[in-house]
Design a protein that fits this description.
Layout lengths: L1 H24 L6 E11 L1 E4 L2 E15 L2 E5 L4 E6 L8 E2 L4 E5 L2 H34 L13 H27 L1 E3 L4 E6 L6 E2 L4 E7 L2 E8 L15 E8 L2 E16 L6 E8 L13 E18 L7 E6 L2 E6 L1 E6 L2 E5 L6 E4 L13 E2 L11 E9 L3
Parallel strand pairs: 1-22
Antiparallel strand pairs: 1-23, 2-21, 3-12, 3-16, 4-11, 5-7, 5-10, 6-9, 7-8, 9-11, 12-15, 13-14, 13-16, 14-15, 16-20, 17-18, 19-20
Helix pairs in contact: 2-3
GO molecular function: efflux transmembrane transporter activity
InterPro entries: RND_pump_MFP
Family: Belongs to the membrane fusion protein (MFP) (TC 8.A.1) family.
């Protein structure tokens, strides 16, 4: 009876152990887990060092080399005005811009010429009388100068000189009634109108010379060393942006002002353009322009976007890994940088910004892998055993 009581529990336990053992024998081996290793995919741009020309940027306003204020040198009423003697008019050199009534000056000239003729006649008379006196007094010992009529002759000669000067002055005054253009000119302003009375010194107008335009170009002290021979004889490109159109004109540095401005601490160069209004399109006075001044040429250099640099180093792709090349930053130009390299061998520059770049990290070039558009990384799968 006792044996039967214990047999049942033992049998149940045995069955449970058997079932557990059977289930354990059916358990699957550990699953293999794929671990993803990220290798950055980068874009590469190959550059090769060589000579790089530097330009120094500046700006300025186009001005005439010569500008003249016309003033009246004689007085009178304005009798004539050239049709082109208006603001914006262009007039050839020596053209009569304005004429003052010259009738009084013509009369003055006639009067001066008459006085001159009278003085000449008196001189001839005195010369003849002096000759007669010398002949009559040839036998007289030590005749006086008055008897020889020398003072009278000197007076007659002086009168001729004085009246000749009056003639020349009257001629100049008559010529000054015609106000002429001193050079091929652009009229900027005209003041009196037809019939106006002007006196000596009255402002008549302002003209600019068309032959040469000048542009005063400031250069910062830090950019001054980038110029060759302090910019003298350097070629310059002037630019004006008109909407979407960029206009350009060639110019040349003709001189340095030789001083540093007290307020701005800038050096100043002066560029010239010959016949600015004959250019295509015309370069007009008063126009604001930007300027690129030819500077130095650096060897073993390259111009790159500044964002490619990593603490004065250039990231490059070598044998599937990231490397850094030390460079000498010569100049910053907005978002560009001019850097000098140690050699002229082609260099595969990594242009993709890496989050945590480190020397020797593995990289994959975009052109080495075919990936769907928009992907920037690839995954490499490796197998490992789950230890659990």
């Amino acid at each position: 009876m006792i044996m039967r009581r214990w047999a049942m529990p033992i049998a149940i336990v045995a069955v449970a152990v058997g079932v557990a053992a059977g289930l354990a024998s059916l358990k699957e081996p550990p699953e293999e887990k794929i671990t993803e290793v990220t290798v950055p995919e980068v874009e590469i741009e190959t550059r090769q060092a060589g000579p790089v020309s530097i330009t120094v940027g500046s700006y300025g306003v186009v001005q005439p080399r010569e500008k003249t204020e016309l003033v009246a040198q004689v007085s009178g009423n304005v009798a004539y005005i050239h049709p082109a003697f208006v603001r914006g008019g262009q007039i050839a050199a020596d053209t009569v811009l304005m004429r003052i009534d010259d009738s009084d000056y013509q009369t003055a000239l006639l009067d001066a010429e008459a006085n001159y003729a009278t003085a000449l006649a008196a001189l001839e008379t005195e010369q003849a009388q002096g000759k007669v006196a010398r002949e009559q007094l040839s036998d007289v010992k030590n005749p006086t100068v008055l008897a020889l009529r020398k003072p009278q002759l000197a007076q007659a000669k002086a009168a001729v000189k004085a009246t000749l000067a009056m003639v020349q002055r009257a001629q100049r005054d008559l010529e000054r009634t015609a106000i002429r253009a001193p050079f091929d000119a652009l009229v900027v302003a005209r003041h009196p109108g037809l019939g106006s009375y002007v006196s000596t010194g009255t402002a008549l107008g302002t003209v600019f010379a068309l032959a040469t335009a000048e542009i005063r170009l400031p250069v910062a002290a830090k950019q001054w060393p980038q110029l060759v021979n302090q910019g003298n004889d350097a070629e310059v490109t002037l630019r004006v942006q008109q909407g979407e159109q960029s206009l350009e004109w060639p110019a040349k540095i003709v001189r340095s002002e030789g001083i540093v401005d007290d307020n701005s601490r800038m050096h100043y160069l002066v560029a010239q353009v010959e016949n600015p209004y004959q250019q295509t399109p015309p370069l007009r006075f008063g126009q604001y322009v930007t300027a690129d001044i030819q500077g130095r040429v650096y060897q073993n250099s390259v111009r790159i976007p500044y964002q490619w640099l990593r603490e004065q180093r250039l990231p490059v792709f070598k044998d599937g890994q990231l490397a850094f090349e030390n460079v000498d930053v010569l100049r910053l130009e907005g978002d560009q940088a001019v850097v000098q390299l140690s050699n002229t061998a082609p260099m595969a520059i990594v242009t993709t910004a890496l989050q945590y770049p480190s020397e020797g990290m593995a990289l994959h070039r975009v052109d080495d892998i075919s990936v769907p558009a928009g992907e920037s990384e690839i995954m490499i799968a490796t197998e490992s055993k789950d230890e659990s």
